[in-house]
Design brief:
This protein is mostly beta strands and 319 residues long. It is built from 5 helices and 18 strands. It has helices at residues 53-56, 87-93, 121-131, 149-158, 232-242; strands at 9-12, 22-27, 31-38, 41-46, 70-77, 102-111, 114-115, 140-142, 163-168, 178-186, 189-200, 207-216, 219-226, 262-263, 269-274, 276-277, 283-284, 287-292. A hairpin with a 2-residue loop joins β6 (102-111) and β7.
């Protein structure tokens, strides 16, 4: 049984797809993690295979008794007072160990030495429901699903969740693939961007705004700046953090923006909420959510969407 399996990724979609073979789940606002149980010991791996058991496993026991060896796929989240995943609170949890965390399991990739990735999703879900309770861990929760995507989306949107997932119930798990069998629909435009630089406030030296970019065809493409969403404390702390790395040294011909910009190596990733992209490809109405330590900058690309069509068809996710 593998310790870590490359995660299957979802294809962005503008509208919720329809079809009899689809199931729907909440889209969690957290860090994608695999929970591995081997010989009673628990470990957490990020979507890039990093062992973050010590960083994010604070709510997990060191061991469990009389259970199967398993690999679960899911998200680890910090919940607000209403029980809703809060990404900003999760970022705080990386340095504040008093913030409790919850793991939401939505898939089972291996069990008792057997890989389940070739089995259809509905079969993996059935095994998940059977196996997960045996852990007996309060902070590990099962993600429920439904066949009524519109009803789920209505509830999640009114509760200010990030979005909804649509998955083909007959599809196998495709490790490391951004598959059309999984679609993610966000209620607001929101994605990761590379932090390419920042502008300091002339009076305080704190962060006035950050310059964001995506990596497209191996080249860094600037996507504008983000100046809202920061607390006063974050502006000061980020300025101290950004002052460490050396300058990226982009030539002036690559800089469509003006002002005192201090460019950074393209290594940091920020989660950003925004209204839309302008005709020139820059973000408009953008707000900072938090830095992401679970994603590599090389993965951050300009998101393209699956078909916008919502017409009822027999199987919209068939290969």
């Amino acid at each position: 049984m593998p310790e870590f399996t490359p995660c299957q990724l979802a294809t962005p979609a503008r509208e919720l797809p329809c079809g009899p073979n689809l199931i729907f789940e909440p889209k969690f606002d957290g860090y994608r993690c695999q929970l591995v149980v081997r010989h009673g010991k628990l470990r957490l791996f990020t979507r890039n295979g990093l062992d973050w058991t010590k960083r994010l496993g604070r709510s997990l026991p060191e061991s469990v008794c009389e259970t199967h060896d398993c690999v679960f796929d899911g998200e680890i989240c910090a919940l607000d007072q209403n029980g809703r995943p809060d990404f900003g609170l999760l970022c705080k949890a990386l340095s504040d160990r008093s913030v409790p965390l919850t793991y939401f399991a939505f898939d089972l990739l291996a069990c008792s030495g057997e890989s389940l990735t070739s089995q259809p999703l509905h079969a993996r879900k059935k095994r998940l429901v059977e196996v997960l309770p045996s852990l007996g861990i309060e902070c590990v929760k099962l993600v429920a699903h439904t066949g009524d995507g519109n009803a789920l989306a209505k509830v999640l949107k009114s509760s200010r969740w990030e979005g909804v997932m649509a998955k083909d119930r007959n599809s196998p798990y495709e490790p490391g693939v951004r598959s059309p069998a999984w679609r993610k629909v966000k209620f607001t435009r929101r994605q990761e961007f590379i932090v390419a630089g920042w502008r300091p406030d002339k009076k305080t030296g704190a962060v006035k705004s950050i310059v964001v970019a995506t990596m497209d065809n191996g080249a860094l493409t600037l996507r504008g700046s983000v100046g809202t969403g920061f607390s006063v404390r974050q502006r000061r702390e980020l300025a101290d953090f950004f002052s460490g790395p050396s300058s990226l040294g982009l030539p002036s011909s690559q800089l469509p923006m003006k002002g005192d910009i201090r460019f950074l190596p393209p290594k940091l990733v920020a989660e950003v909420e925004f209204l839309e992209f302008s005709s020139s490809g820059c973000v408009r109405g953008a707000s900072f959510i938090g830095l992401r330590e679970d994603k590599a900058a090389e993965e951050v690309q300009h998101e393209t969407f699956a078909s916008d069509s919502t017409e009822e068809i027999a199987d919209p996710l068939a290969a």
